[in-house]
Write a sequence for this structure.
């Protein structure tokens, strides 16, 4: 007869869940509001993320940062994100551990049919709550780009957009560059 495993005192279910995700085979596994999601971006999604990455990479290098899709932990919640792009100071990238949203300079999510509402609503709220200073939402379904800034516990206080694809979108300092969205 098999018995169910019970968590003893001192075992933190949040830690156990996040540990399991980090050791799951597959490179894009997230936890979104307690639900494990394996993300498999299609080629159009990847192309759009690449277009953003290419436009910001020179400025990212000047700032002494790295852009990539590394793990972001949201401590105290059942969330573990792998954004399409996050810009973080290079010195924080050594050691391989997860970072938290307030350690980023910019987080970019590109929507896909399977996760558009999550990126528009849930992740926007959580990135603000956890202090990501800038959140760029490239909404492929709506064909718009929106920049959120001024994070707080109730969401972002500044919204620039939504702008239709083709509109130049200014990324504020420390970036100070215009993002060309015409090929999105």
């Amino acid at each position: 007869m098999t018995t169910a495993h019970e968590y003893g005192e001192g075992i933190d279910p949040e830690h156990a869940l996040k540990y399991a995700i980090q050791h799951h085979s597959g490179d894009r596994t997230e936890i979104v509001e307690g639900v494990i999601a394996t993300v498999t971006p299609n080629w159009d999604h990847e192309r759009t993320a690449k277009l953003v990455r290419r436009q910001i990479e020179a400025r990212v290098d000047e700032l002494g940062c790295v852009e990539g899709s590394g793990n972001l932990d949201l401590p105290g919640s059942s969330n573990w994100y792998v954004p399409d792009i996050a810009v973080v100071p290079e010195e924080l990238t050594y050691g391989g551990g997860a970072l938290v949203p307030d350690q980023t300079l910019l987080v970019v999510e590109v929507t896909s049919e399977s996760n558009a509402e999550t990126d528009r609503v849930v992740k926007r709220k959580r990135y603000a709550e956890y202090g990501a200073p800038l959140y760029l939402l490239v909404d492929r379904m709506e064909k718009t780009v929106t920049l959120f800034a001024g994070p707080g516990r109730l969401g972002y206080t500044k919204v620039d957009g939504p702008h239709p694809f083709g509109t130049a979108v200014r990324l504020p300092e420390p970036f100070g560059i215009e993002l060309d969205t015409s090929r999105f």
